[in-house]
């Protein structure tokens, strides 16, 4: 019920509360690499919305035992972020199946050292872009005037919370779980530090 309420609140925010203007920041321009004049923090948050789905593929697919298959929701999250993942968590309340879905090869790839290091690396590199200098005032102004920045910020916060929740739910015996609070890269570091050596 909590996740369904969050989903409705997220939709309500995007439709009724987010600013209606663009604030000079267009989705198409960001997607095509036209970043001139865009604050580095806005850019880092935007780019991390493309990395979060990789994090959730890594978290959910190897633990895919809930009512609905995880992969469609994780894939759709590349386009709509938390709007799809909240539905997965809202309706995945059936007791877990003993056997997880999907090919074992895919599970091994998503928990391989190479994959985890790849996702961790692009997460860290993305946030290093803020070292070019960013302005909280500029970000706040963009949040107030740009529908894109406003919705993606709220979406990012929900994805961050879901990634922390996923670690605690699906990896209850993992060590270093508090690392999951680190945005984007944290859950991957938890998996990396708890990775079992192949037998």
TrEMBL record:
The chain crosses the membrane at residues 41-61, 73-91, 114-134, 146-168, 174-193. The keyword Glycoprotein does not apply. The keyword Transmembrane helix applies. Keywords: Membrane, Transmembrane, Transmembrane helix. This is DUF2834 domain-containing protein.
């Amino acid at each position: 019920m909590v996740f369904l309420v969050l989903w409705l609140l997220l939709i309500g925010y995007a439709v009724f509360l987010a600013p209606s203007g663009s604030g000079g920041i267009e989705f198409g321009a960001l997607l095509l690499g036209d970043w001139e004049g865009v604050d580095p923090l806005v850019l880092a948050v935007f780019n991390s919305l493309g990395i979060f789905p990789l994090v959730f593929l890594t978290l959910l697919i190897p633990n895919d035992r809930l009512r609905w298959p995880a992969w469609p929701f994780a894939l759709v999250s590349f386009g709509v972020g938390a709007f799809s993942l909240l539905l997965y968590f809202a309706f995945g309340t059936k007791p877990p199946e003993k056997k997880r879905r999907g090919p074992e090869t895919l599970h091994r790839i998503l928990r391989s050292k190479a994959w985890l290091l790849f996702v961790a690396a692009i997460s860290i590199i993305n946030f290093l872009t803020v070292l070019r200098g960013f302005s909280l005032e500029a970000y706040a102004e963009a949040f107030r005037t740009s529908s894109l920045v406003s919705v993606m910020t709220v979406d990012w916060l929900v994805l961050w919370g879901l990634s922390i929740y996923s670690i605690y739910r699906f990896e209850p015996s993992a060590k270093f779980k508090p690392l999951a609070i680190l945005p984007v890269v944290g859950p991957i570091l938890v998996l990396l530090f708890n990775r079992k050596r192949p037998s």
